[in-house]
Amino acid sequence: MTPDLQLNLLNNLGIDALNPMQETAQTAILDDTDTLLMAPTGSGKTLAFLLPIAQLLNADLRTVQCLILTPSRELALQIEQVWKAMGTGFKVNTCYGGHPIDTEINNLSNPPALLIGTPGRIADHLDRQSFSPDDIHTLVLDEFDKSLELGFHDQMKFIVSGLTGLRKRVLVSATAGVAIPGFVRLNKPQTLDFTEDSEQPANLTMRVVYASEDDQPDTLVRLLCSFGNDATNSGGANPGGASPGGALIFANLRHTAEYVSALLNERGLSATTYHGGMEQPDRERALIRFRNGSVSYLVTTDLAARGLDIPDMPHVIHYQLPRHEHEFIHRNGRTARMHATGTAYVMLTRNQPRPEYLPADMDEEILPSDRTYSLPAPPDFVTLYISGGRKNKLSKGDIAGFCMQKGQLDKADLGRIDVQDFMSFVAVKRGRVEPLLARIRDEKMKGKKYKIEVAR
């Protein structure tokens, strides 16, 4: 790739230059050997392997040349989004469970140069012979350790065994020291470990919050209320983005996450749940509402600790501590990223044994009493659902124009817009939602009437 072409791809992403990890990874991946890349969450690993992949593809071939496997649909879609934003000119398709496979089979009849997917769905396509694997020369296993943890060992083994023309393997993880299964057949890989000096960011503050076992939920409410709507920790409010007083709240169990989220909503705090036991559309909707600032708190399991496109948060709360240090580090990696500051709160009972990985010098967070705290204001934005998307020829510009022209909104009344294949979501200032819905009730967008309502 010429310097001018690389600069053009970076400009398309709004990036001035690669960071040292990305530069090192690009050089290694373009070499003849395999690559094992380990770097913390939020460091730019996706671009680190996508940029050299763009150089390895042959524009004259009309078959799949590179396969990227990810443990989750969300991560697969995030990678696809970055690839499309790069503007390489090479076709990409993404395959994952939770929706009909027929659309994917139809898309694969015109094979993409880059195919991204979850192990289960890609294995299904290989079994159905939806595409030919013969020309796949590069395999990327992103967050491969998470795929193994989630039980995709057999599917991954089946997929790799069918890639007979494979010449290059790239394994990517946010965790060092993970055992690599033999079926990958790594050949003297270059190991790039950027995790050693980044276990806890220097701009991360850690504090302990003490609570008795029976008042832990009440203590959590008081902690969240102490954040208020203060934007100082996040560098100011982000219109249509994450709440400046927002937080990621981590629990170990799915039912605990659901319980805590329900409790917070009962107390007047805007929360939603995210975990692996939810239906895929519900998971995706929860992330959309959290990203665009329609809910302030995401109560989640370790599924959200890495590999997701969610905003940097000013606060991370360990409602329950994980068993392992690396899980603790990944959770904390959701705050104090890049040059931002952030705080991780550890909730403990005073007699609770402390894991060895916890710092011994954490200051205690002193919370206001029950009589002195007040609830933060509700989120500035509300998410609206639209029953049409890319396949209906709708774009972000179409939705914004419709809301401003037919709904008489100002540009400042609109937040983040997410357009999917058959549905879309738009964040609208809370006070403008009812007037907007009244004005557009009988209006058409691009000649068609769509269902538009508050997303739940």
Task: Describe the 3D structure.
The chain is an alpha/beta fold. It has 3 domains: 3-193, P-loop containing nucleotide triphosphate hydrolases (Rossmann fold, 3-Layer(aba) Sandwich), CATH 3.40.50; 204-364, P-loop containing nucleotide triphosphate hydrolases (Rossmann fold, 3-Layer(aba) Sandwich), CATH 3.40.50; 381-454, RRM (RNA recognition motif) domain (Alpha-Beta Plaits, 2-Layer Sandwich), CATH 3.30.70.330. Helices cover 32% and strands 18% of the residues. It contains 14 helices and 18 strands. The protein has helices at residues 3-13, 20-30, 45-56, 73-86, 101-108, 119-128, 144-149, 153-161, 216-227, 254-266, 280-291, 325-332, 396-405, 433-440, and strands at 35-38, 66-69, 92-95, 114-117, 138-142, 168-173, 190-193, 204-210, 247-250, 271-274, 297-300, 315-318, 342-348, 363-364, 381-386, 414-419, 424-429, 452-454. The protein has a 7-stranded parallel β-sheet with strand order 3-4-2-5-6-1-7, with helices on both faces. Strands 10-11-9-12-13-8-14 form a 7-stranded parallel β-sheet, sandwiched between helices. The radius of gyration is 23 Å and the shape is globular. Mean pLDDT is 89; it is low at 231-239.
